[in-house]
Amino acid sequence: MTIPESFWNSSSEELKQGFIQEGEQYVCLICGKKTEIGIIYPEDGVYYDAKRFMRKHIENAHDSVFDYLIGLDKKLTGLTDHQNGLLKLFHQGKSDSDIQKEMGIGSASTIRNHRFVLKEKERQSKVFLVLMELLKEKDQHAPTIVNMHKTARMVDDRYNVTLEESEKALKKYFPDGTDGPLLKFDIKEKHKLIVLREIVKRFKSDRVYTEKEVNEILKTAFEDFAVLRRYLIEYGFMDRQPDGSKYWIKE
Predict the structure, then answer these.
(1) Which of 207, 236, 241, 212 is nearest to 225 (CA)?
(2) Which residues of 188-206 are buried (b: 16+ CB within 10 A; e: fewer)?
(3) Tens digit of pLDDT for each residue in 2-51?
(4) What is the rounded end-to-end Cα distance, in angstroms, of the chain?
(5) Which of 13, 126, 15 is nearest to 4 (CA)?
(6) d(CA 174, CA 176)
């Protein structure tokens, strides 16, 4: 699913805890689940206040904020596959010598060098964040870019879509509204992504579908439901069992 705008607008501290407070509610930055302040939530014989239950939700549904973030596409994290693997092992609390053995890296000193490189990346990131914050105060012409979904594949310029461009394309290809039929799908790849992002909203993220059910829903959008189904999987909006018996929305 698309990463919510609230995720990108949150402070580093809010991202670390994985949720924000909006009025009298706590909202999960990962999936949007809400808990209401003042309500007690029971689970397995234990009672939680709204904040503690939200933390429990993140642990149960997403393992941890770290697990969610480290699972994002490298285009979003800026990490190489090697750095991603190292951070996972660091987070597990493994020693440099253990990591050296597990990854087959030359020596423990090599791991220390990787730690130094990551520390430099952290410093650079802090400077860059401040620069961007200062830029926002002066740049009055920056367009609003539509957020990509976190399970996006083959991330490239196709995802460089402004909000204005997206709204224009949706009006063009869904002349009867986005709940209606799609005019055509023989369109450029960037616009296919815009269209698919809208079509996937017709599915519920918390249920599993049969192929027949998927086809019936996609038929409401376009007669060639098979090509929509293939692209939803290809672009990472949807996944399925190898035998095609079950389909679900990726989050």
Answers:
(1) 212
(2) eebbbbbbbbbbbeebeee
(3) 676 678 788 889 999 999 999 999 999 988 899 999 999 999 999 999 99
(4) 5
(5) 15
(6) 5
Q: What is the mean pLDDT of residues 194-217?
A: 93
- 83: tokens are 């750095």
Sequential DSSP letters for 52-109: HHHHHHHHHHHS-HHHHHHTS-HHHH---HHHHHHHHHHHTT--HHHHHHHHT-S-HH
Q: Tell me the one-letter amino acid at 182.
A: L
Q: Under a CB-based contact definition with an 8 Å cutoff, are residues 193 and 159 in contact?
A: yes
Phi-psi category of 108—alpha, beta or left, where left has phi over 0 and alpha has psi -120 to 50? alpha
pLDDT value of residue 127: 93
Nearest to 176 by CA among 227, 221, 232: 221
- Where residue 153 falls (left for φ over 0; alpha for ψ -120 to 50; beta otherwise) is beta
Report yes or no: 179 and 170 within 8 Å, Cβ to Cβ.
no
